[in-house]
Fold each of these.
Amino acid sequence: MTMKIAIIQMDIAFGDPEANRAEAERKVQEAAREKVDVIVLPELWTTGYDLSRFDEIAEKMDGPTHRLLKELCKKYKLAILGSVAEVQGENYYNTLVGYNSEGTRILHYRKAHLFRLMNEEKYLESGDTKGNFSILNHKAAGVICYDIRFPEWMRTHMLDGSKALFVVAEWPKPRVDHWRSLLISRAIENQCFVIACNRVGSDDNNRFGGHSMVIDPWGNIVAEAGGHEEILYAEVDLSDVEEIREQIPIFQDRRPSLYE
Ligand SMILES: O=C(O)CCC(=O)C(=O)O
């Protein structure tokens, strides 16, 4: 029941999807040599925060990035998750997608909480559906960056028995302490694995903090990256979740009627 994960903590060329796709393809090839089951790429890994050019660089759900992801998943027999710039009609979204080892899309989640500090709300529409999905026959959920500051949103994802929370981010370096504490808290309070990929490098306005992490349902750090480019590997046993949920049965003990 173990799942072998590779988190690709990469720098992102601003507004240059072709360069980012080429770099990600090289890194996926490298990670695939380690026989991983799942690869996680950062938030907006094809474009960075070049929001004012989304009319040129955002893609439909059958665009070149999606075709590449499907091809890589099938070629290396693994799943890949990561968020990309999506256009649908006249609207733009920050969308977390996942494909399985057959190249089938398993996840389509539009960032629900747009981050004003980076002007997301000026350019993007927010999503309003959850990021629950199934990976290797396990229930899981995927969310994007700022979403982790909303524990009530994370909790709604965990009520179906999900065992892992995937997070993709472009989290700035000055608040990397928040990133670490929030991720650990989300793991403890939901008794789930947290698998979180942040980018590194910088754009004109921000430096990004790295520290991608894998955290177990007890809140222990299984693996943590530093502040530079790297591929972080970890192997987790999702059945650990059941043991901890039996030991301290928070999902049975919740009293939702008090929380409204
Ligand atoms: O909440 C934060 O401090 C960072 C959030 C963020 O950078 C984002 O959502 O893109």
Amino acid sequence: MHYATSLALLTDLYQLTMASGYWKLGRSEQEAVFHLFFREPPFSGGYAVAAGLGPAVDFLKSFRFDASDVEYLTTLTGNDGGPLFDGGFLDYLSELRLTCDVDAMPEGTVAFAQQPLVRVRGPILQCQILETALLNIINFQTLISTKAARISGATGGEPVLEFGLRRAQGIDGGLAASRAAYIGGCAATSNVLAGKQYGIPVKGTHAHSWVMSFDDETKAFDRYAEAMPNNCVFLVDTYDTLEGVRKAVEAGKRLRERGYEMIGIRLDSGDLAYLSIEARKLLDNGGFPDATIVASNDLDENIIQSLKGQGARIAVWGVGTKLATAYDQPALGGVYKLGAIKSGEGEWEPKLKLSEQAVKTSIPGVLQVRRFENEKGLVGDMIYDETRGIDQRSVIVDAGDANRRKQIPPDATGTNLLVPVMRAGEVVVPFTEESKDKIDDTRARTQRELGRLHPAVKRLMNPHEHPVGLDIGLHEIRDQMIREVRWDFGD
Ligand SMILES: Nc1ncnc2c1ncn2[C@@H]1O[C@H](COP(=O)(O)OP(=O)(O)OP(=O)(O)O)[C@@H](O)[C@H]1O
Ligand SMILES: O=P(O)(O)OC[C@H]1O[C@H](OP(=O)(O)OP(=O)(O)O)[C@H](O)[C@@H]1O
Ligand SMILES: O=C(O)c1cccnc1
């Protein structure tokens, strides 16, 4: 999608005050590199599924301060009542066109803590003013695609229908959630606009109100079957669920006489394990062994896992609220940090932010991630500084605990996860108009990526940690920088 209006003001004011500062100091063009990453996978899980790059690229392509943006900025005042921004700076913004380089993990890539999902390199002013929107887009979509991957993992590949629009966080939240849920593994959405906009399959049943609007349930099913003979999933729990299933079987027989087949039934309350087992028997004995049982009602990955453990005969899972709102963790804490700045001599100077918590101390450099695998499977991921290359010792060191190290075996081959997306402000890969083929390819990538992960890393509770570490050369530089900063502060 190409945004019709500029979204350059979709930012925090402080990005613009810093930009104004860089401009006034004559530093706007100084080259810098920033990395977008998260520190903990969401939902206490072992991984995340990167998503949001498509819309992020659309945002970057449309990025400009148009006349109305600049006019608005002229109205902002400082605490002396005078204009907040200099006229010269606002002229600079109106002329500004992105010239930076962006590298990122393609959507559907499995990502782990500390790894850059996006790297932006270019004039510091440009890198800085992109922070908020990139975080807004990538954080939410990565969160939802990860939730969808967990839910789809729990169903063991049985289709998940995303039903979340009515509970989603507003209009854009609903659309973005449907998109990301599909990338993460959902089979379809009930969100028709998302279907149109992103080429996602749309599916649905009917609501209780349909049944309630008739005097009795049988009539409701028959009338629905007459109106929609090729889309019959009867919602059977308005009054008594198993009685509802019996009526659905009878309605299905009448439909069959007309040359159509009912798709199945939907359960939306009560004990879904018991009811699905009993409903299955009624459907099978009634001559509908192929009828599908759809279930919904505040489902999430944990309830689904429990239902499967109880032998539930559910074949299609409708999941709304807990998926589209990422109910148990409503935000991914992705951050965007400065990694290095180019000095006057044109050398990259790595930059470090210290923290009391080792894991929160930033990783300096111009970072890239290399994923290693051998014939046994994935070996581990290395975060390294592209300007220095990989140390020949081929060892990764945990970013939070220097005692945790792993040798990358010589038979392992590596692939860089960050791929070029923009060069000098121009999109260089086909992350352009969202097409059905494109989103289906992305969804397939997620499936391939998850298929390569060890099952223990995908475990819902207390997952095994996939090995991720800093290239030992980068670790030593960072360690030295930490010592120097601590020394300066007399620690
Ligand atoms: N066998 C089961 N094991 C575990 N959880 C279940 C089982 N059956 C249903 N659930 C889940 O338990 C919760 C049921 O909540 P609740 O009892 O409020 O729903 P209900 O019986 O459908 O009532 P309501 O009519 O208000 O929806 C839902 O999240 C549902 O998905
Ligand atoms: O439960 P979710 O995962 O959010 O899935 C969507 C829910 O939306 C619909 O009902 P709605 O919640 O509007 O009404 P109900 O609770 O009375 O069924 C539907 O029947 C599902 O239960
Ligand atoms: O089609 C459905 O069954 C549906 C759609 C949205 C929300 N709940 C259910």
Amino acid sequence: MSETDTTDTRAAIEGENPEEIADIDPEEDSDVERAAREIPPGRPLRVDDLRMEFGGLTAVDGAGFAIEEGSLTGLIGPNGAGKSTTFDCITGVHRPTGGSVKLHNEEITGLQPHEIAARGLVRTFQITRELQEMTVLENMLLAPRGQQGEALWRAVLPGVRRSVQAQERELRERAWETLEFFEIDHLAEEYAGNLSGGQRKLLEMARALLTDPEVVLLDEPLAGVNPTLERKLLERIDELREQGYTFLLVEHDMDVIMENCERVIVMHQGRVLADDAPAAIRENEQVIDAYLGANV
Ligand SMILES: Nc1ncnc2c1ncn2[C@@H]1O[C@H](COP(=O)(O)OP(=O)(O)OP(=O)(O)O)[C@@H](O)[C@H]1O
């Protein structure tokens, strides 16, 4: 392998051109290439050559990117570009038909959503009709998966009961702390269905964070949120980033993306068209042609 090849491989790994990663044949790897493809410690989430086909339709067509720890990265693209399907493949809602998703270098491709959540990657979910009939606090207590308390039989075993009770207590404390963090603790006894659109978005975020994730995928968290709550939500995201949480955000509001994300990934027809800082994205001719046009 020539020095130029090595440089190109490293450039691809550093995220300068993630699409190049798909061109590397794993069978042909040297030790140097294999070592270089390990996720650097600062990149908890990595997607390589991701594909998702529904019958004859290719929704995701070899998408690849890596996300920096503690970052807020935007994922944008025109309708049907494959953003939601990419989220669904990362979080285990769909089993991708090709490619790989790694969390801290661990292969999580094709795992169930609760298995992925247990490893530290979650997404926000809309509060369903069923959850709307529960209080905010009940919504919080239902959120974490894989808690010992879920396995009821454990509670009847001697010795385990105490640990279940301790875990329940801890969960309640954490639920209250999280509600306070999002300033919706005063709504704890309110039915989720009575919350405003913005308050519901805060609850969705609070629920996701209760599992203590490292990486959080946000699917349009600001849709229908008034400017005051929008500011509050973005401030909370900033604080959480300082604590090391990592966010990947799908959002149609281009101002929010451009003003708050340090990096923007643009998808088009199932592929990554561009992956750069907002200022560079604004000026990228391909992006303007494919998507932004009059939006910037
Ligand atoms: N379950 C499914 N079965 C069949 N086709 C699907 C399915 N989910 C998505 N698609 C198709 O895959 C393509 C990508 O859709 P996707 O929802 O991922 O795009 P998107 O970028 O999130 O779009 P939007 O911004 O409109 O939400 C679309 O053509 C869509 O119709």
Amino acid sequence: MSERVYIFDTTLRDGEQSPGVSLNVEEKLRIAQQLERLKVDVIEAGFPVASPGDFEAVKRIADEVRGLEVAALARANQRDIDTAWEAIKRAASPRIHTFIATSDIHLKYKLRKSREEVLELAVSAVKHASSYTSNVEFSAEDATRSDLAFLAQVVEAVIEAGARVVNIPDTVGYTVPHEYERIISYLKEHVANIDRAIISVHCHNDLGLAVANSVAAIRAGARQIECTINGIGERAGNAAMEEIVMILRTRQDVFPYHTEINTRQIVPTSRLVSHLTGMVVQPNKAIVGANAFAHESGIHQDGVLKERSTYEIMSPEDVGWSKSAIVLGKHSGRHALKAKLEELGYHLADEELDRVFRRFKELADKKQEIFDEDIEAIVADEVFRLPDKYELKYLNVISGTTTIPTAMVEVSIEGQGTKRLAGFGVGPIDAAYNVLAQITGTASRLLRFSVTSITGGTDAQGEVTVRLEEGGQVVMGQGADSDIIVAAAKAYLNALNRLERLKKKNERQVQGMCPAKV
Ligand SMILES: CC(=O)SCCNC(=O)CCNC(=O)[C@H](O)C(C)(C)COP(=O)(O)OP(=O)(O)OC[C@H]1O[C@@H](n2cnc3c(N)ncnc32)[C@H](O)[C@@H]1OP(=O)(O)O
Ligand SMILES: CC(C)C(=O)C(=O)O
Ligand SMILES: [Mg+2]
């Protein structure tokens, strides 16, 4: 049997640090439950001291998602660690993840501390965390720009203090594969007690090398990989889990290691994360992009038809692309819909299934064949988007060659009832957006608007993605519908709802509502 590599998923912590992404407690819980189905080893559920919402989300995940380790992040100080522990203490297997930077550049400009002070803070943080649990991880932030001898000194000291996992992050995505391999090898050679801990790596994608660096580190001895679904995360993102897992699986000849990931859950997880975060997956993205297994040119098609392995190195079914026998349409019932949803990785409660079924029937009346993507769009809309401040209740748009485009809109606003207004624009979407902007009183600017067809044909569902900016905050919004103008209105409101959530989160931080003592 090959050696095991542990998968530490940080979609809910570093992934949520993607600009414009803010997940509510329900959304985080859904993703955590899906990560459990995917069989990751550890999830980093959040940074509990960051906000009451993050604290609550980590706590709910720790209480309700029992089949994996739940980690919480904490700076190297007592209050962060106490708060992290408070949030995860009821988890089936809790882990405190504490960190401090070790590079001179971070010490000098950010922490304003000497190496001696940082060493002491690291050790006392790990000792304090160890007073709660033996499952403590320490990260040396910006490790790849740190002096190697000092890095080795810190790593040795934190292992001595009780760290069970030592993470060597490439925080700013600066290293390259052969250099990273050398850093990990150096630590293996120069840290006397290194065999008492698992070496972990956490790579960012600033130079597009996060995945390459992660697998290089495995060659040198790392046995835990920190990564995110779809590679989302701070700036250019983190290493994409699906890519790392499939590299190990596909290239066993080069990497004789395995993970316990249920690869068939990869695509459903990717879609769920994309829908809930609003981070669209580019079509040419490896493994989970819409084109990842599509063959366009004749020579390739001919090859694949004769023998699939001529142009496919993995099987699409292995990563969860479905070739289902269940075709959904207007005559399908609840059982078929439930079976299809489960095949796609969605395990809904009865009441949620009822809501999705109602929407499914409405769509089936308008559309001949319902595709997987249609179902996912409905689930995203019906089940995951809550609680929102704005909800579209009614939209009627008139446009054509001889009419001034006019929109009549009704929106329900949390705590204010419904508001109704009509207005004009240069086109139907412009008219709808003008009215929505007036109803909501938003001061945001539309930075980008894009439409894609989720499925083929003129009866396809359209998906609209927008990017809005307000006060320096940028958010994305998505909406899907068989009517493109309705999809556009939903996307706009979805982005406004995200902005509202970000505003609330920021207000709480400014007011210092983070749980000082919990
Ligand atoms: C590499 C990473 O991804 S690290 C994780 C980054 N994630 C986040 O920052 C998201 C959540 N963060 C937050 O909500 C806020 O930053 C909070 C609540 C954690 C802290 O807020 P504030 O107390 O207002 O501090 P602020 O964020 O402005 O500054 C960070 C402070 O922490 C210190 N600090 C940074 N890292 C560490 C660390 N690992 N250990 C101890 N102190 C640290 C900084 O030096 C600075 O201290 P100072 O106020 O004495 O100068
Ligand atoms: C907190 C640490 C692990 C981190 O996110 C980084 O260094 O990038
Ligand atoms: Mg990071």
